[in-house]
Amino acid sequence: MTASLPTQTKRFPFPMPFGWFKVALSHDLAPDTLLTRHYFGTELVVWRDAAGRAVCHEAYCAHLGAHLGVGGRVEGDRIRCPFHGWAYDTTGANVDIPYADKPNTKARLRTFPTVERGGIVLAWYHPREVAPLWEPMEIPEYDDPEYGDYEVFEYTIGSCMQEIGENGFDHAHFEFVHSHPQVGQIEKVEFDGYDRVVLSAQQFPSSKGPVDGRIDVFGRGPGFAITRYQGLIDASLVGCSTPIDEETTLVAFLFTLRNAQDERTQRIARAFVDSVSREIGQDIPIWEHKRYVATPALAPSEKPILDYRRWYAQFYAE
Ligand code: FES
Ligand SMILES: [Fe+2]
Which domain CATH number covers 75? Predict the structure, then answer.
């Protein structure tokens, strides 16, 4: 008996993209704390040096492979392994072996360049350890006293980053999956180097009739975008995606609202946040079961999907 072979054994053919990715929130990274994370297909530790700068390494000791996040500790500008006490500096270099005269110059922890932007600790992942190719975007709302603290939502999703990001350029699914057309007047869709911008004028429904407003999206790299809403409320949604591995993504939304004190604004914001959560809940089962179609059969209006894919391809090193 013969069986037909599947033509596509993996749901998507992509490696993890390179870029800046959220690995922690700044306020979760207290001094002397060693946070453990599983991103970039490996185990990580995240900590702060004596000057307060965030540092991110692969968690496995270069000596005999102990996990630094399980019993290891921060000592000023070093972290020390729980197994035989070897210490590493912020560059990942071994700087002390308790039972040897000199450090081992070959022993090094893989270290990811790290910065903080708007209350987010971002680490630069590149499979070949190429140095950062761009600066992450600023988030002026974070330092603006008119904006409130972030409300944070996180989702672990069984799909790759590119497939999840395609959602924003797949206009037809809004009506079908989310029961509302992606209303509004798209004024500009631009892919420029590492950046992408979608500007749109929108009408938001309200009890007093439609209110004019805007939804503007500014993205840089594969893991980071800010969506700014104006009209009924002034709010920003910082969207961060981090590859857990090639097939799993952590999506975090950080929502911040301007003039959060008045009750009407609060109520509208609550409804808005609920709709964002509802919509991602509707998308997730589709993302977790679909497969990538490399040469899709598209309707004429669906060209933005191909523009997005072309732009995204630059973030793959392999
Ligand atoms: S495994 Fe870390 S010091 Fe030996
Ligand atoms: Fe969606």
Answer: 2.102.10.10
The residue with greater pLDDT, 261 or 32, is 32
Which residues make Cβ contacts (< 8 Å) with residue 258, sequence separation at least 6?
141, 144, 146, 147, 148, 233, 234, 235
Q: What is the CATH number of the domain that holds 266?
A: 3.90.380.10
- 145 and 115 within one domain: no
Q: Specify the ligand 1 atom closest to the Cα of 68.
A: 2
Check pocket membership of 66 for ligand 1, CB cut-off 6 A.
yes
Place of tokens 């069986």: 3
> Which residue range forms the structural domain that includes residue 84?
19-125
E strand residue ranges, 40-136 = 42-48, 54-58, 73-75, 78-80, 87-88, 94-96, 111-112, 114-117, 120-125
Q: In the sheet that 235-245 helps form, which strands lie side by side, from edge to edge?
A: 151-157, 248-257, 235-245, 224-230, 211-220, 195-204, 185-192
Share of the chain above pLDDT 90, in %: 80
Residues, beta carbon < 5 Å, ion ligand 2: 167, 283
Specify the pairing of strand 185-192 against strand 235-245.
unpaired
Query: Is residue 114 domain-shared with residue 205, that is, in the same domain?
Result: no
Instruction: Read off the pLDDT of residues 250-265 as tens digits, 9 standing for 90 and up.
Output: 999 999 999 877 888 8
pLDDT tens for 269-282 read 898 899 889 999 99
Ligand 1 close to Cβ of residue 81 (< 6 A): yes
Q: What is the pLDDT of residues 147-183, one digit of tens each?
A: 999 999 999 999 999 999 999 899 889 888 988 766 6
User: Is the pLDDT score of 125 beyond 70?
Assistant: yes
Output the six-digit token pair for 147: 């904006």
Alpha carbons 82 and 111: distance in angstroms, whole number: 19
Question: What is the value of pTM for the model shown?
Answer: 0.94
Same domain as 277, residue 185: yes
